[in-house]
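Trying the structure run again after the queue cleared.
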Amino acid sequence: MIKKATRRNASPPLSVPPATRLLLEDVSLDTLKSHPRNYRAHPDDEIEHLMESIRSNGVYRNVVIAQDGTILAGHGVVTAARRLGLETLPVYRTSYGPDDLRAIKLLVSDNEISHLAMSDDRALTELLRELKEADIDLLGTGYDDMMLASHLQKSPTWTPPRNGSACPSMT
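Done. Tokens:
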């Protein structure tokens, strides 16, 4: 006889606790300020890629702020939005202040968790090659022609161009 799962012996469904749910709101860029303890710099080439991404796809990267408008996650996105002349930005506002240890943890985790991911260089190279072959500018992807050329040179199927170009031909 097979015993039917009941609420008593079944795992409860997982959900985000109500106290940690963040609501999305539009805020004026004038009200946002950088966290004084943010340790990540966003060089101009990164901001150019973020600006192109916003122009092409809209804002899809999370910006998270403390109760007072201090940025906890998304400093680069905010910088790019300002340079584009946007007036408002969708953000998630937390209920705690910028010096709360939960805010500090969020600041660090947003900057660092992505470093734990691993990339499949071959799959990435193929995606970039596909974009380039379709004559789509790589600006906004985080890569440029020289970076793609470097990836292609590492690929076992790559053959050097005959025209002496630094960037391999995509034909």
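The chain is about 35% helix and 10% strand. Worth checking whether this holds up in the mutant runs.
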